[in-house]
Amino acid sequence: NNLPRTMSMIFVLFALFGVAGATLCPTEPTSKILKLYKNDEMKAITRTHTVKIPPQVLIPFFEKASLWPSWIQSIHKVKGGDLKPCANISIEFNDFSHLPLHLPSTDQVDLVNKTEGLYVVYWTYSESVLGLFGLHEYELNCGPFSCSFTSWEKAMGNTGFKLSKHLWEKQWRYVADTSMSGAACLEDVYNRTKALNPEVVANTCRHG
What we know:
The protein is built from five helices and eight strands. By secondary structure, the protein is of the alpha+beta class.
């Protein structure tokens, strides 16, 4: 089932590479997102890691999007601060081939629903030449002492996208894999220090 298991805590971020995001904040996923969930052009790229950090520590740290580059190696830079409704957040991704290239996007936080235990971040992106429309999801499904962290990505597009899909999939696997290794690094920092200090995280996960 490609539909999210629960959507009791949702951020929907519309991202257009190099283009401003949506001007309104929808209260539910768009019909295009629902169509993408059902589309079978590509298999969703997904990774999951159980992070043994209490949610009251992990979630506030995760909400600080400006700190993502300190623990997710595939993210070069984030501008815009914390995740909050209708905020614009500019993200630059590193290239999977480790060339000095950055893929820019402008994301808009469109919706926030808060319910204890589940935290989901969505952003969509599009590219007109390839007819590309895709969605990335981060999910934190938390118990009292740990959170299951999932990265999920899927896209659809025209013939141009289909011909270049293998390159996009490499990029998305890179983002998913570095997200999981970053989460494991956060867990290591917490186990040693019983906190997620931004400076310690950066020195350990980005530069360690």
